[in-house]
Amino acid sequence: LFFRCMPPVPLLLYEAVTAAVYTKARVVIDGTFRAGWYSKALIKALPPNGQVIAFEGDPAMWDSGQALQHQHGPDRFHFFPAPFGSLTSREAMSHAITGLSPAGVDSVVL
């Protein structure tokens, strides 16, 4: 009964975040926002000028993503209410990200 009440915690959260910021990353994409576990951990692990760009296709999770964007501001955390897979072409990805991070992206967590 106890485990049913707890939200699922990603098993490799620490490892994934450590790997994503290992190279002094400044811009990281969270391709599967869900409950925001990775995004929240990445925001804490990145330098003050770092940025997380998150994608989520499930409308039930959009309020959480938008709340996190409101909390941290779009310069620190930007939320796309769409699945990462919707950016099927390199051009679409570049167009979506360029306005947020002209220098590019350092890491992607899926």
Characterize the structure shown.
InterPro entries: SAM-dependent_MTases_sf. The chain has 110 residues and is α/β, with parallel strands linked by helices. It has a single domain (25-109), classed as Vaccinia Virus protein VP39 (Rossmann fold), CATH 3.40.50. Helices cover 38% and strands 15% of the residues. The chain contains 5 helices and 4 strands. It has helices at 2-5, 13-21, 37-45, 62-72, 90-98; strands spanning 27-30, 51-55, 77-80, 107-109. A 4-stranded parallel β-sheet has the order 3-2-1-4. Helix 2 crosses helix 3. The radius of gyration is 14 Å and the shape is globular. The N and C termini lie far apart (30 Å). The model has no long low-confidence stretch (mean pLDDT 84).
Short description:
This protein has 110 residues and is an alpha/beta fold.
Please describe the structure with a list of short key phrases separated by commas or semicolons.
5 helices; Rossmann fold; four-stranded parallel beta sheet; SAM-dependent_MTases_sf; alpha/beta; 110 residues
What would the CATH topology be?
Rossmann fold
Overall geometric form: globular
Distance from N terminus to C terminus (CA atoms, Å) equals 30 Å
User: Any guess at the CATH architecture?
Assistant: 3-Layer(aba) Sandwich
Structural category = alpha/beta
Q: CATH-wise, what's the superfamily?
A: Vaccinia Virus protein VP39
Task: Trace the largest sheet across and list its strands.
Answer: 3-2-1-4
Mean pLDDT: 84
Low-pLDDT stretches: none
Counted beta strands: 4
Sheet of most strands: 4 strands, parallel
- Strand percentage lies at 5-15%
Run of helices and strands: HHEHEHEHE
| CATH C-level | Alpha Beta
The number of helices is 5
Count the domains: 1
Helix content: 25-40%
What quaternary form is this? single chain
- Global Rg: 14 Å
